[in-house]
Amino acid sequence: MYKSLQDTVTLNNGVKMPIMGLGVFKVEDGNVVTEAVKAAIQNGYRSIDTASFYDNEAGVGKGIKESGVPREDLFITTKVWNSDHGYENTLKAFDISLEKLGLEYLDLYLIHWPVRGKYVETWKALEKLYQEGKVKAIGVSNFNIHHLEDILREGEVKPVINQVEYHPHLTQVELREFCELEGIQLEAWSPLKKGELLGDPVIQRLAEKHQKTPAQIILRWDIQNNVLTIPKSIKEHRIIENADIFDFSLEEEDMQEINGLNINSRSGADPETFNF
C-alpha cells in the first residue's frame, strides 16, 4: 500500500501519476493560488490540478516556477472548458492554458464535462495533442459510463483518467467497476464533499479511533479504494495535514462502514443534467 505523498500509480499508457495532489477549484488567481501551490510543492506534493474555468492558471504557473522543484518532477493537470469544445477550439484552448501556466508541456489534459454532441470531436483534438507530445496523458472528467463508451468506441486513445465527484456520500460503485475493467484510473474531486462529511458521526468515530482528523480518514479511504484524490486548501497547515495519511491504515471493517455511508448525493452538478 502507498507509503508517501510521492507514491504513484501507473496509468494505462505507462505514465506515472502521484496518488494525491492539490486541487485549486475556486482559489483566487494571483498571490492566493501562487502561495497555495508553492506551499503544497514545498511540502512534498507533486501533483497540481487546475482548469481553464478556474481562471487561475497564471497564478498556478507562478507557484510552480517559484517552488524551486524541477518541472520534470511535477505532474500538472488542466482541463478544457465547455465553451471551448470542438476540434479547433480545443487546440486553441490548450495553447492558451499552456501559455498562462508558462509551461512547455502538460502532464494531463482533461475534458472538463461531457458536452452533448461535442465531446467526441473534442476528444479527437486531445488525441492530436497527445500524439504530438504536447501532453503526456489525456483523460476526462465527470463522464458517466455511456459517455466513456462513446469515447472508447470512437477514439483511438483510451482515456487514462476519469475525474469525478467521489466521496462517502457518492461512492460511484458501477462507474468505478467499469473504469477498473477498462483500465481507466478514477480520481476524486470534492473528496470531502465541500466539508459536509467532516461532521458525520461514523467519520468522527473513526477519526477518534485512529487519532486522525475526519478529513484524513476520508482521504485515506480514497487511496485505499485506489482512487486518486485532490483535496483543496489554501492554508499551509491544512495542506500539510491533508497529506499526513501515510502512517496508518483503515481496517476492512472501517472501509465497509465508510462505504455504507453512500446515499448517491452530490455537492456539484450531475453529468446527465448540467447546463453550463
Automatic annotation (TrEMBL):
Gene Ontology molecular-function annotations: oxidoreductase activity, acting on the CH-OH group of donors, NAD or NADP as acceptor
Pfam family name, one: Aldo_ket_red
Active site positions, chain numbering: 54 (proton donor)
Annotated substrate binding sites: 112
Xref: InterPro entries: AKR, AKR5G, Aldo/ket_reductase_CS, NAD(P)_OxRdtase_dom_sf, NADP_OxRdtase_dom
Superkingdom in the source lineage: Bacteria
Site feature location: Lowers pKa of active site Tyr: 79
Signal peptide range in chain numbering: none
Keywords: NADP, Oxidoreductase
Limits of the NADP-dependent oxidoreductase domain: 32-262
UniProt similarity note: Belongs to the aldo/keto reductase family.
PANTHER family from the UniProt entry: 2,5-DIKETO-D-GLUCONIC ACID REDUCTASE (PTHR43827), NADP-DEPENDENT OXIDOREDUCTASE DOMAIN-CONTAINING PROTEIN (PTHR43827:SF3)
The protein's name: Glyoxal reductase
Gene encoding the protein: yvgN_1
